[in-house]
Amino acid sequence: MFVIAIVSAKGGVGKTTVSANLAAGFAQRGRPAVVVDLDPQNAMQWHLGGLDPDVAKGISSLNASRTRLAGVMHQTPFDVALVPYGSCSEQRRQKFEATLEAQEDWLRNKLLSTRLPDQTVVILDTPPGPSVYLKQAVRAADFLLAVVLADAASYSTLPEMEALIASYTAGSSARIGSAYLINQGTQRQLAQDVLSLFSEKLGQRMLPFVVPESEVVEEALAFERPVVVHQPENAAAQSIFKITDWIIRGLPR
Fold first, then answer.
1. Contacts of residue 118, Cβ cutoff 8 Å, sequence gap at least 6
2. Does residue 65 surpass a pLDDT of 70?
3. What does the pLDDT read at residue 253?
4. Cα–Cα distance, 233 to 80 (Å, whole number)
5. Is the pLDDT of residue 140 over 70?
6. Which SS3 state, helix, strand or coil, does residue 155 take?
7. SS3 32
8. Cβ distance 6 to 147 under 8 Å?
9. Containing H/E element for 159?
10. CA distance 115 to 163
């Protein structure tokens, strides 16, 4: 099992879209893939075929029972297993978050007890900014992928993201790798200038791939499909495949 936490300091960067497509990309490369939605917005399901909200219990329901993670894992049409956040009341959400605050390794222990196949890649989709969910994801992860846009607002959040990573990895005995992915890249001059700033600041921690802006990505979401399935020849999909291959090359043998 290899766990990747998809993180961001601000919303609106396409983090959930990237998470869903990476998972589908790993599945198409023959790797068992699991996505865990740690965002109370519970939106991941709409990227992977949708689930019946009346039957799709999620990770937030584990607080109220002894159900294992596998008990709220749902198969999607894209060979990706999905653990949704799940619909829950405000009271249940607060109770769930209290559990996560009290047990720092709750998520990692849940993943380990699920006994997934050795080759499984687990994608953790987190809400933007600091949260108990981000802390759980960082402590459970083997690798952190921070998603940013090629704009000044994203560049200005870089110190915040770096501080969050440092804070949540402090005290951990495991060495966690991290990298930054530029999403929705364009050829506009300002975007290219910001890309240069990111490259100068991050060096090799900036992925050598940019996911280009594409209307086809939004079209795929309208059909509740990852773009790597909806139109695999699209430039954005091809970038996702390059990223999955890059990650696979670095996985433990």
1. 1
2. no
3. 65
4. 20
5. yes
6. helix
7. coil
8. yes
9. helix 158-169
10. 32
